[in-house]
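Final report, Chapter 2: Outcomes

The project's central promise was a pipeline that accepts a single protein chain and returns its three-dimensional structure in a standardized token representation, suitable for archiving and comparison. That pipeline is now operational. To close this chapter, we reproduce one record exactly as it appears in the project archive, with the input sequence first and the structure output second.
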Amino acid sequence: MTTDVEAAAPGTGRGDDAAAFTGLRLIEAVTGPVSPADVRDAVSEALGPQFPAAAWHTLDGPDGLPRAIGIRIAGHRVHLDLEPAAPARHRTLDPVVPEPALWRTAVLTDAPTGVALPEPVREIVTAVRERADRLTREEVDAVWSAMPLLRHFADQGPVVGDWALVFRDHYVENSVGFLLAAERAGIPREWIYSLAKGDRTAGRHRVHAWFRARGYRSALLDNSVIDGTAPGQEVAAARRVAADVDRFIAAAHRAGRRVLVIDDGGLLARSAGPTRLVSEPVDAVVELTVSGLKRIGAGPLPSVPVFNVARSQLKSLLSYEEIADSCLRRLREMLPGQKFIGRRVVAVGFGTLGARLARRLRSLGCRVTVVDQDTLALIQAAEQGFETEPTLPAALRRCRPFLVTGSTGEPLLRPEELPLLPDGVLLAGFATKDFSLLSTGGAGAPEHTLTGVGVRYRLPGGGRATLLGDGRSLNLFEYEGIPNSGYDAYRAGTLIAVRELCRRADELAPGVHVREVDEAVRAAGLFETYYDTYVAEAPADLTRDAPHAAAEGQARP
């Protein structure tokens, strides 16, 4: 491949206007805190020594940094055009002051539409995009600052520096905080492998880009692969990722490290079997979800100790209040045109999350009918003043809800029950499998995609139903989920559990343990520190050593 310099035409203007003057077409326009120096470095990294900067044509601004870059690659002109962008709504949950300066980088080419772009061009786009997505130092400081309990306990307890970590959870801001705390606990960043669950969280690309820049491995391992609902290409991709995780675990063991898995869904703790993806044995597991515990319990007894955070006092008594709050906030935000007061809702599931969600819906003025297969749960719901039914069909025969919510993690509908759904009903699932009959194509036909809302289905009986979100946990659909301070105690408690499990891994029997989690969290004083920080009349100030002093070298990439 030869390198020919292509001079940018003088006076071509910026962005889309450049195409009109030079005959170039826009490939991609990336807006983010990517300065001209960052773009220059991204292009240099993407092209490598075959395309030295001396062979580029650049038009520089008054600061001596490029405002335009022109290169000829594989016979095609490639032009990057840079200009300052207007400030946007802050990109993180907590605003950063001052806001980061934004730049728009337009990548253009004269390659005809339909012609495959040369690999170096694709590399340029990817490199600029990753830098634009990446959390800035100031944004990471804001995340770290919003989690005072996590910061406090990150420096308390034994160091776990001889462990490697495989962390599988949602890609949200508080996950960034947790992995920074894991570093402070002693785990080197090169021995952290992070895996996304596949939810369409609002900041997932930004978290992924920052993880990679931080030096972690980062990839996707979706629940749907185990559930059997993923298409073949996704299964193949998941198997490639799982093979890479196997290599990571084996390398850790060769280096004399033990391997801890923190999992949100039980995919990595499953015993050997045909559906197991990761086959290398690990040394200890922390499971964060009830659905994950169900997956673990469905197979042979685990061969390593598993800490059950999912049913711990920490999650049951504190975290689910925040989760329920995020579910309702997301539901109201997605449906600003809907009236809730006085309308019928069927809430399927009256467990730890479902009961809290039903009470919140009732507090809005909704008339809520609770459905649960557990008779004791129905008794509790009835004695709290809810109408109750043991099955969804019975509830649908009794009333015509405008909204059906699910929080069971199990399929709620069978094909023969679809005609019972009122025409126009909204379906909101807060666990992945709730309305999987529709989301996996088991019944009805997608009629319209409602951008930012969900998919409207034409049901076999002729009616319509709208599945909100993407059929997965609705509070994570194009949303950040829970405020960082709202998950502060949960992440701090998980870190306490991690340290306890690593300390006692050799003495604990294989199998699932919850008592040890509760005891470790209480012994560490998390609840007292939580009370003093968030609840007491004069809250404790745990922020004196943060964000900058405590985060230096930890929160900063």
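Archive annotation: The CA atoms of residues 530 and 536 lie 9 Å apart.
This record, like all others produced under the grant, will remain available to the consortium after the project formally closes.
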